[in-house]
Amino acid sequence: MARHVVYRCELDHQVRWRGYTPCDGGISVHVRAPSLGQAQQLMAAVAVGDGKRSDWVEHTEHTAGDGLWVREALDERVLDREHATRVLMEALADQRLRARLATLPACRVGGVPVVVCVPGDAVDWVLGQHDRHGALIVAAAVTNHHAWWNVLLPADRAAETDLSVAGRLDEIGLTDPEATLDDWMAATDCAGLVLLTPRPAQATPLEDATEDDPFAGCHAEVQKLHDRLLTELETTSDPLREAELRTRAHEL
Question: How many CB atoms neighbour CB 32 within 10 A?
Fold first, then answer.
């Protein structure tokens, strides 16, 4: 499965580029650097243990205003995505639409990402970019001047929006591994809210499991050290120190 890595350009921050991984429940990787190239190098250094870089899909994010972040994949279809972005930005020139989207629940790193898609993109590829916390807007160009979009959101946060629910992914037939954006667009109208399919329930661990684990105390100490490293990460402004801390946290 592809590992998605995002580089967000934050113009109001002293160190402009923020690299991060959309994280589904675990510990996300974050770096900061003054240029995109340096952010890519830092991410490669601190996330080396998370799979081969050849398995990564890298994206850039740029602000569209009002807390919206347009995300483009740096892949072989970058020109098609640039065209889709132009169509999307034309649609977002409508202040009423932008204000409506800005009220959606934010993702873990803040704001609402808008993923620029093109025909043939796999639904699983889009799902891999969702952190199962806030909203993920999925957008594509239908014509040179018309954009289609849906919002992907956990079911327990649907009440926070005023969008009409198109259905859950499984209800509209989008859980097939071969499903693509084309299937999604055929199944839903523009401006719909699509809910994530609930995950299978996890088995409840036995209450006395830790009593049988001779390393339980060691695990707790490692977690405490990990938490201290993350606390320091939040306060440091030195990108090299941040990279060092990320590496140490990942090694734990």
Answer: 23
